[in-house]
Design a protein that fits this description.
With 161 residues, this protein is an alpha+beta fold. Helices cover 21% and strands 39% of the residues. The protein has helices at residues 5-14, 64-76, 141-151; strands at residues 19-30, 39-45, 51-52, 55-57, 79-90, 94-95, 101-115, 125-132, 158-159.
Length: 161
């Protein structure tokens, strides 16, 4: 999905000044039992070619878990349901090619796979795939952190002090 309308409206007023935006990452898991039999859903981004978790901006008034479900479906054609909050942190400031700057409140949700064949379902990604937890591609640091939080089942939600 392209940049949300509310962000475009804000940009008309503030230009490229930094925005503080709520975002979500979805740690979508399928399989049961040990970590060796589980898989995580990843997308390969158009803008930098990196594998990441499905992620996106939470719309005004939208619940974070609903945003994680929506973003996953929009990006991958996979339907999932929220299991639990894994953690909350912040991202570093991002500067986009057009000069826009943003920093995100990063809400990480663990999701359970329900149905759907994983495929590229938007124009933000070039590939989608399920990866065994012992065969992961190199993930950006904050996505690796989110995945680690998602796999710490007994730890409860993580919050960065």
């Amino acid at each position: 999905m392209p940049t949300p309308e509310f962000v475009l409206s804000l940009r008309e007023t503030i230009g490229t000044a930094p925005l503080w935006l709520p975002g979500c990452k979805a740690v979508v898991l399928r399989g049961s039992g040990s970590e060796r039999s589980q898989q995580v859903l990843l997308v390969r981004r158009v803008d930098n070619g990196r594998w990441t978790l499905p992620a996106g901006i939470i719309e005004p008034g939208e619940e974070p878990a609903s945003a994680a479900v929506r973003e996953t479906l929009e990006e991958t054609n996979v339907t999932c349901v929220p299991r639990r909050l894994a953690g909350v942190g912040t991202t570093h400031e991002v500067t986009y090619p057009n000069g826009d700057r943003a920093r995100y409140l990063d809400v990480v949700m663990v999701m359970d796979y329900v149905c759907g064949e994983a495929r590229v379902n938007d124009d933000e990604n070039t590939d989608v795939g399920w990866f065994g937890l012992d065969a992961l591609p190199d993930l950006p640091q904050l996505h690796a952190r989110a995945l680690a939080w998602g796999l710490e089942e007994a730890a409860g939600a993580r919050f960065v002090p």
